[in-house]
Amino acid sequence: MPIYDYRCEQCQTVYEVFHKVREVKEDIVCPSCSSPRATRLLSAPSISVAAAKADLPPCGDAGCCGGKCPMN
What we know:
By secondary structure, this protein is mainly beta. Helix content is 8%, strand content 19%. It folds into 2 domains: 41 residues; 29 residues, no CATH class. Strand 1 and strand 2 form a beta hairpin.
């Protein structure tokens, strides 16, 4: 399920909405003031550095840039 951040146009509260398949206007209600008027915010996806490192072979192995791993 996609998670989107919204900012209430009335009270400026920022909150998250879990959408099942597509955006449904009835789902977008401010939890603070119950206003249906909100703006969807643009947010970048994040990646955990620990998760990225877990998929890499140990430095010094043949598969990791000859020990010059940029993840160190």
